[in-house]
Amino acid sequence: MRRLLVAACAAAAITIAGCGSTTTPTLENAKLSAAAVLTQSAKKADEVTSYSADLVMDITAGAQGKGNIQGTMLYQKTPELATDTTLDKVSFAGQDLPGGMRVILLGDVMYMKMDMLKALTGSTKPWVKVDLKQIGSSAGVNVDQLLGQSKQMDLKTSVTMLTASKDVKEVGAEQVGGVDTTHYAGTFPIEEAIKQLPAEAQKNMKGQLPAEVKDMKFDAWIDGDGLPRKVQLSGEQKEGAFAATMIFKAFNEPVEIKAPPADQVGDLPQNLPVGG
């Protein structure tokens, strides 16, 4: 079960990363190339302030087994980075994380609600507060860079990376959540994709994508405003494979992300066991 806890905490770290988009004037009827659509989509996504999304990730890790993560996310970019992620299902190698988990990020403070973590710490509180700057300082981790990575991993970054594709093509018209979209598909070399980003974003992206995966497959469903409604990424390596799907909704609608009630929050023990 310890390995499942580590996998769950890794999932929490991944879900700090946000995605989003915004309402913009619709694209004109002029026929754009598939590559031009992705370029325009990346520009429009830069104006995002909030979103909600459904998340699914499937992982195959060779002899270690298979994993599956399913959940939802709320994202807010301003006035400070904030996310509220609920993972209803976290499983790996045939083991399920009891009760799933929920993670709220407000600035540089994270709140975690996870039955297994509560049992390990012996806490009587359902939530655990993690001061990322304090933890980072004691562990020698640059939390400012970590939070910078979180801010860089938004929808604009994701779509900008897709623009590195040299083989993207239009698949056809499809609906996503009742919204008309055009489906595009292709691949992109990860190394070249990172080069499409600003210098600071390139620095923050290092180590965020699996080094063993050189090329990423993707599918993107773009609506009439030029914004992604659904993105799928998949990759394979010698030891396994992964596939992630994100469905985006409620662009720029008001969201309320706040800390849990103080009387339900405990602190993360300094002697929390992490090995095994």
UniProtKB/TrEMBL annotation:
InterPro entries assigned: LolA/LolB/LppX (IPR029046)
Domain of life: Bacteria
Keywords: Lipoprotein, Signal
Keyword Cell division: no
Gene3D superfamilies named among the record's database cross-references: 2.50.20.20
Presence of the UniProt keyword Signal in the record: yes
Signal peptide region: 1-19
Name of the protein this chain belongs to: Putative lipoprotein
